[in-house]
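Let's inspect a concrete specimen:
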Amino acid sequence: SEEGREMLYDERKNWEMFWLVDPLDGTVEFIKGNNEFTVNIALMVDRVCICAVVYVPFLQKVYVASREIGSFLIDGIAPAEDACYSYEDICARKQRLPLESSAHDSYRIAVSRSHQTPETAEYIELAKRDRADVEVVEQGSSYKFCMLAEGTIDYYPRTSNTYEWDPAAGEVILSEAGGVTKALPDMAKFAYNKESLLNPHFVCRGRAIKDIDIDDNAFKSIEAIINSMTPKERTNPEILNGSRRTRIAKGSGTNIQEVNRLLKQFEQTRKMMKMVTGSKMGKMMMPGMPKMKR
């Protein structure tokens, strides 16, 4: 857990079974008082989550999953020190995920309420280019995984830092509901009990995506282009001349058209944010951002 993050890798690297716990996921939202926080508990065996629970106290919802068995919602579970439920009680109240009642027509993208980045905004713009009914849902904590498992939302890109205890429980709840979580930039499966507890950026899909399949490679190309730019160029893209843009396209494995489109989009976003929120935010939108960590 976060409370045990200073534990040395040599001490835990050979663990075959352990609990991976986040007793308060969504700390920022908890402090803000908006009730978007969860309790995450994952049982790990050979570095794979085999069963998990995510509890959303304010909504009185418990999400449970066991690998190769399924993912379920148990509603109406109020916080109580003396709470006690029999196995029969749990089985009688559980609803298999995804929920039929969560069907919707729009394409819903969930984003972190408190940890959005310029890459998040760029992904949303990519989605809006493909269809007009994109709906953005801001939500804190791992409840986003549960909303994906329900079928309430369709996609969740995460382009800011998380740690292993943040997504572990939600990932298996989503996967047992038919969804998937992929690590960027190589779209690999998530790994746990690594030497570094920091996660790569990732994207999540729900099962109920219908007639759209936005190319994950488009999102990867954004990362590749940004990483091919110098810090000065990332802060001031207008200094890039034609020959430099060509070299960036070659270095990122993309093409000059994609480089030009991305830079134009960043500049438009920065100008818009400058108009709306002032010059300070406008300067932040095309980051003097550090090179993305792989």
Q: What stands out?
A: DSSP finds eleven helices and eleven strands in the chain.
